[in-house]
Write a structure and sequence with these properties.
The protein is mainly α. 72% of the residues lie in helices and 0% in strands. The protein has one domain. This is Transmembrane protein.
């Protein structure tokens, strides 16, 4: 007996429905995997973007507070009110009364 075509014992309608079920299951699994991968990639991208923004904000605040930012140098040269400059820097997260290192 030749067993190479074992589906030959089943009726044609059963074989067709089996193929349809297998194809539907494979398509559903592929769609679910693609959706999960896309969601994970988007979440990782957003987390990396948030980390980058926090890092840039930290660098900018450190540069403004503890470095000599060109704006601070210009404000100092024109003799602008240091209290106003201090309150602006304080809003950026600098320590109270700190005017930068100019």
């Amino acid at each position: 007996m030749d067993w190479s075509n074992s589906y030959a014992f089943f009726p044609v309608s059963f074989r067709t429905s089996l193929v349809v079920v297998v194809v539907v299951v494979v398509v559903v699994v592929v769609v679910v995997v693609v959706i999960v991968v896309v969601v994970v990639v988007v979440i990782v991208y957003l987390l990396l973007l948030l980390l980058l923004l926090l890092l840039l904000q930290s660098i900018q605040t450190r540069y403004l507070c503890y470095g000599c930012h060109p704006i601070l140098l210009f404000v100092k040269k024109i003799g602008h009110d240091y209290k106003l400059m201090s309150s602006s820097l304080q809003r950026l997260g600098c320590p109270y009364g700190y005017y930068g290192n100019c």
